[in-house]
Amino acid sequence: FELIGNFTFSEFLFSLGSTCFLNIFYSVTYGVFEKLRVRGPKPLMYWGTVGRHNQVYYLDDYECAKKYGRVWGLYELRRPMLAVMDPEMLKIILVKECFTHFTNRRNFRLNGDLYDAVNIAEDDQWRRIRNQVTPSFTSGRIKEMFNIMQHHSYKMVVGLQSKVDNSEVITMKDIFGPYSMDVMASCVFSVDLDSINEPSNPFITHASKLFRFPVPLFLFQGFFPFFLPLLKFLGVSLFPKSSTSFFRTVVEKIRAERNESSKTNVADILQYFINYQTKTLTKVMENQGLNDHEILSQVTMLIFAGYETSATTLTFLAYTLARNPEVMKHLQQEIDSTFPEKGPIRYESLIQMGYLSSVVDECLRLYPPAARLERMAKETVKIKGITIPKNMIVMVPVYALHRDPELWPNPEEFKPERFSKKNKQSINPYTYLPFGIGPRNCLGMRFALVMIKLALVKVLQNYSFLVCDETEIPLRMHPEGLMGPLQPIKLKLQKRSLNSADLDN
Ligand code: HEM
């Protein structure tokens, strides 16, 4: 072959061919938003727009919102994803068109045993399962479970006593994690784990693992999506098998014990599902109940959906209150006047506490554990002039939405008054989404709020949160999974000098 410069002709053809191929690949893969006339960060080959501005995905969203406004296009590796934080569009996507075009979240189809959990199930199956799970969280049911929550909040505060007496620096997750897990396990299947006294409990280790997607697997399926059916066939799952099997074994054992002793008067969520169960698939299709496998999946999923989110929220609450002592003082005044002399916490009074509610709402604005929501377009639709093609993921950047300066003046500041009774009325519901909104919103929202408020009131009746040398300020955030700090949040607690009774309940 003739030499062209230092190349042989075949080498020259090969590099020309490769360059053409890569150019075509790039424009086909990464030309989607250009065609739709949607702006966004420039994608890198293979990598897409992941972490273009910040390694932490929701901080990246925040930067994009500043640069591109309320709608922009992203590529998660090769997958296009439309980010929407325009309230009018959100109303259509999350509420009006939920049952028609936007019923489901993205589904990797690598869900292992949890394929029929309510957060993963799709379309008619999701609707049927959701209808079965929802009645477990009515006000009446939550009120029934309040006694259980009280029991665990009491144990949590007693557990704190020696640590405070010894002036220990306390890792907040070590207190609120076990509390959340104990409440969830007791309410879901009546097992008193006593994690507060045994923090290395396998329930906690396994539930934590369920929230951390394995990054190598995530990257592999992103780069080579055509291998997905093979991975599914091989039983590969984004949820660690050891953890799902752990929960499966526990629930199966509890069920077997109940069958043997015909104990049907237990008032937990598992028993509620069993009581409404029908045995045959045909009846299940007639919207009569959950089958055995579905019961198992819902129980496992409720434990992990409730544990990490509630524990994280309590941890951020402790941190923000320690950093805003005047707010904490105001809240303690409300607590003391609602429950004088550290008196027992009554359900009705707790849920009516205005300032407490504002503090929790404001904390969830600054630190929403689910920093993004997702829906998948079932068909091509046009919303406010923007075409959303079939199978496109619509992502709601909740963190960025909650810190939009046009919606929230001085968004970085912790100001519970934003959510006072008067101010709350002027908040557009599509701009504040810690629990999502619409038919597919958080199923455990009211349950979570009661459990969080109770724990907070119980601790603040007796102690105040204090920042110490070990408290990281400002916080660095964890780049993966649910929103959370990179390093555990550490604080000190100070005993309140009220001349009243002891920890009593
Ligand atoms: C502070 C605590 C919590 C937060 C911030 C939170 C937040 C969320 C969010 C943002 C979603 C997605 C909503 C959407 O896509 O529109 C969700 C879904 C869900 N949450 Fe929660 N959650 C919390 C606690 C709980 C608890 C305690 C439970 C159960 C007892 C629970 C059960 C669920 C379930 C089952 C779903 C899936 C609903 C469906 O797909 O139909 N969550 N949650």
CATH homologous superfamily heading of the largest domain: Cytochrome P450
In this entry the ligands are: protoporphyrin IX containing FE
By oligomeric state, this entry counts as single chain
Q: Could you say how many structural domains there are in total? A: 2
Broad shape: globular
Q: Biggest β-sheet: count, sense, barrel?
A: 4 strands, mixed
Termini separation comes to 91 Å
Radius of gyration (Å): 25 Å
Q: Structural class, from secondary structure content? A: alpha+beta
CATH domain class of the largest domain:
Mainly Alpha
User: What is the count of DSSP helices, taking H or I runs of 4+ residues?
Assistant: 20
Helix % is 40-55%
Beta-strand portion reads 5-15%
Question: How is the topology of this model organized?
Answer:
Blueprint: E1 3-4, E2 7-8, H1 9-30, H2 32-36, H3 57-68, E3 71-76, E4 79-84, H4 87-96, H5 123-133, H6 139-165, E5 170-171, H7 172-189, H8 202-211, H9 215-223, H10 228-233, H11 241-261, H12 269-275, H13 281-285, H14 292-323, H15 325-338, H16 347-351, H17 354-366, E6 373-376, E7 381-383, E8 386-388, E9 393-396, H18 398-402, H19 421-424, H20 445-462, E10 463-466, E11 490-495
Parallel strand pairs: 4-9
Antiparallel strand pairs: 1-2, 3-4, 5-11, 6-9, 7-8, 10-11
Helix pairs in contact: 6-7, 6-20, 7-14, 8-11, 8-14, 11-14, 14-17, 14-20
The structure holds protoporphyrin IX containing FE.
Residues 118-119, 130, 302, 305-306, 309-310, 313, 369-370, 373, 434-437, 440-444, 447-448 line the site of protoporphyrin IX containing FE.
Detailed description of the structure:
By secondary structure, the protein is an alpha+beta fold. The protein folds into 2 domains: 1-26; 85-495, Cytochrome p450. 50% of the residues lie in helices and 8% in strands. The protein contains 20 helices and 11 strands. It has helices spanning 9-30, 32-36, 57-68, 87-96, 123-133, 139-165, 172-189, 202-211, 215-223, 228-233, 241-261, 269-275, 281-285, 292-323, 325-338, 347-351, 354-366, 398-402, 421-424, 445-462, and strands at residues 3-4, 7-8, 71-76, 79-84, 170-171, 373-376, 381-383, 386-388, 393-396, 463-466, 490-495. It has a 4-stranded mixed beta sheet. It has a 3-stranded antiparallel beta sheet with strand order 5-11-10. The longest helix is centred in the middle third of the chain and has 32 residues, at 292-323. It starts with a strand and ends in a 10-residue tail after the last strand. Bound molecules: protoporphyrin IX containing FE (HEM). Protoporphyrin IX containing FE (HEM) binds next to helix 14 and helix 20.
